[in-house]
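Summary of Year 1 activities. Much of the first year was spent building the evaluation harness for sequence design. The harness presents a backbone, in tokenized form, and records the residue chosen at every position. We chose the following record to illustrate the format because it has been used consistently in internal testing since the harness was completed.
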């Protein structure tokens, strides 16, 4: 809980420290944290690997956008409650879908059913542009309706406070759920469903309830995203969204709630910030995913202490990895810039450096630094690690 209070204090102080420009980024981080926590609850607590988790966040987004349009038409419910109502609607829709997905004990069958349901929903959305808006999407105004307490949800700071409230409530609810009988039973079903059945509990029913709870929080995240963006398109139901949630939750780690929080923050940093810095962001994301799984199988939340300890024990090895990563990044940026040189020119910025994709010297320097990193790495492996007294 100390980490949770520290996170809450950081989120409250962040706007004052970072400025109003960061409010949009922080709001997106809060939404992504809720989404990754919902997937962590499903996979980390219940051991259920879903390949169609975007279905429930996407449904939440569409329910919310229609709720916002209803307020524009004269409905009396508060705009701030639209995400909660949308999440409840998604939970109701997830009940029969979860019953279907959890009927079989095999994890592979569950994964394939969720993938099939997600693809089916995306195909139906493409076939019904009048309902789902097609590629153009459906827009709504979050400032519609009467204001309550001076909150119109027009200014960015008001949206941020709303997202922060829902994010804090999600953290508290998920943390409390992991300490209830349902949370303990989800762990038990994940580890040994046969023993749970011998204790008198139905593993399928437990998985079903856990599935619906996870869908509720995913729907909440999707509804908040609709409120934030004021537009929803069929892209929110795509398998790409499901893959992003899975990848970043695994990078964060499945061993604790911190993994979901870290995964949500990294998702926004990669898709919003990193994508604006370099066209190779997806390549970096893939390399980071493979590297985390190889070096920290438990994710960042479970392996950062061991990695820091390894870096302190072998500082030369840490230096070698840093040099190799910087050199590889510079070479990749120049390689990408070669494709764009005819339109954007050969110049590319990388960590404050101006690189020229047509300059042989820059390529030779990058290769030399990469070779130096490899040589230092081999030397570090030959030396015994430092031991703390």
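For this record, the design step produced the sequence shown next.
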């Amino acid at each position: 809980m100390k980490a949770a209070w520290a996170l809450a204090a950081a989120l409250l102080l962040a706007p004052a420290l970072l400025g109003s420009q960061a409010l949009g980024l922080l709001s997106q981080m809060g939404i992504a944290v809720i989404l990754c926590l919902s997937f962590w609850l499903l996979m980390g607590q219940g051991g259920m690997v879903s390949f169609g988790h975007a279905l429930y966040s996407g449904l939440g987004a569409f329910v919310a956008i229609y709720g916002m349009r209803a307020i524009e038409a004269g409905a009396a419910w508060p705009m701030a409650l639209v995400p909660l109502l949308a999440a409840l609607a998604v939970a109701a829709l997830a009940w029969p879908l979860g019953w279907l997905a959890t009927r079989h004990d095999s994890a592979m069958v569950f994964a394939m059913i969720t993938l099939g349901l997600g693809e089916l929903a995306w195909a139906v959305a493409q076939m019904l542009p009048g309902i789902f808006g097609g590629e153009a999407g459906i827009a709504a105004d979050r400032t519609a309706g009467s204001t309550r307490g001076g909150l119109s949800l027009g200014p960015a700071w008001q949206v941020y406070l709303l997202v922060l409230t829902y994010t804090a409530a999600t953290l508290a609810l998920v943390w409390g759920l992991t300490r209830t009988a349902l949370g303990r039973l989800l762990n038990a079903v994940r580890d040994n469903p046969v023993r749970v059945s011998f204790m008198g509990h139905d593993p399928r029913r437990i998985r079903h309830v856990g599935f619906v709870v996870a869908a509720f929080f995913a729907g909440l995240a999707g509804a908040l995203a609709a409120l934030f963006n004021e537009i929803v398109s069929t892209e929110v139901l795509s398998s790409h969204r499901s893959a992003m949630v899975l990848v970043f939750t695994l990078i964060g780690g499945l061993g604790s709630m911190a993994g979901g929080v870290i995964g949500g923050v990294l998702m926004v940093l990669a898709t919003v910030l990193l994508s604006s810095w370099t066209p190779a962001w997806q390549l970096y994301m893939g390399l980071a995913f493979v590297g985390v799984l190889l070096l920290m199988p438990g994710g960042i939340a479970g392996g950062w202490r061991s990695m820091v300890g390894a870096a302190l024990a072998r500082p030369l090895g840490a230096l070698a990895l840093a040099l190799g990563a910087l050199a590889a990044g510079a070479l990749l940026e120049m390689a990408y810039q070669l494709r764009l040189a005819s339109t954007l020119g050969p110049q590319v910025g990388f960590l404050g450096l101006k690189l020229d994709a047509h300059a042989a010297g820059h390529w030779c320097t990058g290769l030399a630094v990469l070779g130096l990193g490899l040589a230092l790495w081999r030397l570090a492996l030959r030396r015994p690690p430092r031991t703390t007294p």
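The longest strand covers residues 347-350. Quantitative recovery figures across the full test set are reported in Table 2.
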